[in-house]
Arginine repressor (Limosilactobacillus fastidiosus), 150 residues
Amino acid sequence: MKKVERQQLIRKIIAKSQIERQDDLVAALKGKNVYATQATISRDIKELQLVKVPANDGGYRYALPAQGEIDNQTRLSTELSNNMISLKRQEQFLSIIMHPGNGPVMASLIRQLEIDGVFSVIGDDAGVLIVCRSIDAAINVEKMFWNLMN
């Protein structure tokens, strides 16, 4: 199962069940024939921005954030517009220079979007290197990024 599908299932489980711990979520997924490690679920919880809220029994349970999920493409557009210093392409590589501290967020957003043609994304404090599967894919991704900024 793809990450996007697993995370959609997690949203449904969280909405319908009292999930108190990561182990409970692993078990709930297993009950639906989806096998994931606790480490994978931990990353999903972080990416989904799940929060713990008081449960009816006095404990705490996972819930979706109150403001709702922000569309990752909108977040990417905002990050590009507000924090990108430069975007360059050479062959099948794209280099994005960001204001310091914004590289990891940008790399994470690009990974979450699972953009067609992107092979790998590497981010550091102020930069992101995107390795595309072909030169044409790199051109398409570059155009997409410029369009998101306009």
